[in-house]
Design a protein that fits this description.
Blueprint (H helix, E strand, L loop, with lengths): L2 H13 L4 H7 L5 E3 L4 E3 L2 H5 L5 E2 L5 H15 L2 E4 L3 H10 L4 E3 L4 E4 L8 E8 L5 H14 L1 E6 L8 H4 L2 H6 L2 E6 L5 H6 L6 E5 L11 H8 L6 E3 L5 H13 L21 E4 L2
Parallel strand pairs: 3-4, 7-8, 7-9, 9-10, 10-11
Antiparallel strand pairs: 1-2, 4-6, 5-6, 8-12
Helix pairs in contact: 4-5, 6-11
């Protein structure tokens, strides 16, 4: 249940087309529901504009599927991250509309009537090996309602690759920059644009990268203004933050309730849209 559905429910009670008893039954598991192994936050869609996202790592197939089924019953849409093919197959059996993104390991069930996307989020990766984390950010922002474009393998080892795409960077409201190894790309991008830059360090690299710690410290010490940093490999967190910043530029300032998903068009540059 989101804000719109709750408003409709209360209006029906006020007009007499729905009894108080029936409305109370609809709200029986509001704002939370105890599944024994998890307490579902059914109120999150009203507080934040979209339902609770399922983090699948560490959950059994049965646990993830049970949470997904209850979430779909309450909200009619779903985002599950770090999901295995086994978890996807189990959810797909219960929700035929479910789609799996193998690179990001995200499961998506989009709403039947999504709202039009807003703004422009640009997701960049320094290398091809960083694409899984970049895709998690792109899929997340896309589903939450942002218009998303991707630009992959534009690291600083070939600086011309990023300089050749100034138009795409200038068109974005917010940029997500994903990099491992030396982690320098966010500083370069931050020095080229006047938009918010969200830096995502990845665990890609040789031994001295310390599973992404070197990239994280480089990004935290960036001398470029307007660069914020999320945790190592946290594409989901970057996607959520990018969407919230991006949606602030919407005409009415609200967080769009519709979720959408599209497929990457090309390995290097792709636009996500209808």
């Amino acid at each position: 249940m989101d804000r719109r559905e709750l408003l409709t429910l209360l209006t029906r009670v006020r007009t007499g087309s729905l009894s108080v008893v029936r409305a109370l039954e609809r709200l029986r598991h509001f704002p939370s529901e105890d599944l024994g192994f998890a307490r579902m936050d059914n109120h999150r869609a009203i507080r934040q504009g979209f339902p609770e996202v399922i983090f699948c790592e560490g959950k059994t197939v049965s646990q993830a599927t049970t949470i997904a089924r209850r979430s779909l019953l309450r909200h009619g849409m779903l985002l599950a991250t770090r999901a295995s093919p086994e978890i996807f197959n189990a959810i797909k059996a219960k929700a035929p509309r479910a789609a799996y993104h193998p690179l990001s390991r995200a499961i998506v069930v989009k709403p039947l009537h999504p709202a039009p996307p807003v703004g422009q989020v640009l997701v960049l990766s320094a290398g091809t090996s960083d694409i899984p984390v970049a895709e998690e950010a792109a899929v997340t922002a896309d589903i939450l309602g942002s218009r998303v474009e991707t630009l992959y393998d534009v690291g600083v080892a070939g600086l011309h690759r990023i300089l050749d795409n100034r138009a795409a960077m200038d068109a974005a409201r917010v940029l997500v920059v994903v990099a491992g190894m030396d982690g320098v790309l966010p500083s370069v991008v931050g020095g080229l644009v006047d938009k918010p830059v969200i830096a995502v360090p990845t665990s890609v690299g040789y031994g001295a990268s310390f599973q992404g710690l070197a990239a994280l410290l480089t990004m935290l010490n960036s001398c470029a203004a307007g660069v914020a940093v999320v945790n190592i490999d946290n594409g989901f967190g970057a996607g959520v933050l990018a969407h919230r910043i991006n949606s602030m530029g919407d005409s009415d300032g609200r967080v769009p309730a519709g979720w959408r998903r599209t497929r990457l068009n090309t390995p290097k540059t792709g636009k996500r849209g209808r």
